[in-house]
Design brief:
The protein is α/β, with parallel strands linked by helices. It has one domain: Undecaprenyl pyrophosphate synthetase (3-Layer(aba) Sandwich), CATH 3.40.1180. The protein has 9 helices and 6 strands; from the N terminus they run H-E-H-H-E-H-E-H-E-H-H-H-E-E-H. A 6-stranded parallel sheet has the order 3-4-2-1-5-6, sandwiched between helices. Helix 1 packs across helix 9 and helix 6 packs across helix 7. The longest helix has 22 residues, at 3-24.
């Protein structure tokens, strides 16, 4: 069967498969918080006629709205999207500048739709000043907009987050006039959690990673201690609603023991 014919057959079958998946799902079992590692933009670009990375990042950004709509339909109330890691900040200057502009445009688009509360997460001080300002403005403008919160993790690294949390815990103790021993004795899991970028939010029940890679790479290291993981072979720009529904089905079939 030729490739065009295969694509045509798949295009006809996927809607049927989607409906079958939907019938199998119990949306009362939907995770409240889903984290997504949007991986594979550069490899997608390379596999599509050798396109440059910028085209892959742009294609990936255009997929975000679809994902958020799928999450909303499934009653997911918090979505954390990893858009840029702290490691990504070390990329070649030209590619990084283009990527930051694509991310900024994507965030603007989310804001313009007026559907979701947008909360930036990460070491924002590492970002260019213009992007820091934009993210702060969007966060303020969208606060309380809906019950659905979209965390955009930009300049985010899990190790960096934990270090920041402990550092801020220590700073708070110093401000309160506590001794080193008092600060050390007060350090606990709950106290660190209060100083994370996601403070006040429930931990993600489900973490999805695209592109076939089967690792977290530092995404929500602290928060994902009891999360379920779903790894999808598709590069992020090729991620479909079918893939999302499969992830929800896999989650619903897991027996979550929380370490017990």
């Amino acid at each position: 069967m030729s490739n065009p014919l295969k694509r045509a057959v798949k295009a006809m079958l996927y809607p049927l498969y989607e409906r079958r998946l939907l019938r199998q799902l119990d949306f009362t079992q939907t995770p409240h918080h889903v984290g997504v590692i949007l991986d594979g933009n550069r490899r997608w670009a390379k596999s599509n006629f050798g396109a440059n990375p910028e085209e892959g990042h742009r294609a990936g950004a255009s997929k975000i709205i679809e994902l958020l709509n799928w999450c909303e339909e499934a009653d997911v109330s918090i979505i954390t999207l990893w858009l840029l890691s702290t490691d990504n900040l070390n990329r070649e200057a030209g590619e990084l500048d283009a990527l930051l502009k694509i991310i900024a445009t994507a965030v603007d688009h989310l804001d313009e739709l007026g559907k979701w509360e947008i909360k930036p997460l990460g070491a924002l001080e590492l970002l260019p000043e213009w992007l820091q300002t934009k993210l702060r403005d969007v966060e303020i403008r969208s606060k309380g907009r809906t019950k659905v919160v979209v965390n955009v993790a930009i300049g985010y690294g899990g190790r960096h987050e934990i270090v920041d949390a402990v550092r801020n815990f220590i700073k708070d103790g110093i401000v309160q006039g506590k001794s080193a021993d008092e600060i050390a004795s007060g350090l606990s899991i709950d106290e660190v959690s209060k100083h994370l970028y996601t403070a006040g939010m429930p931990d993600p029940e489900l973490v999805i990673r695209t592109s076939g890679e089967q690792r977290l790479s530092g995404f929500l290291l602290w928060q994902s201690a009891h999360s379920e993981f779903y790894f999808c072979e598709a590069y992020w720009p090729d991620f479909r609603r079918v893939d999302f529904l499969r992830a929800l089905r896999a989650y619903a079939q897991r027996n979550r023991r929380f370490g017990r």
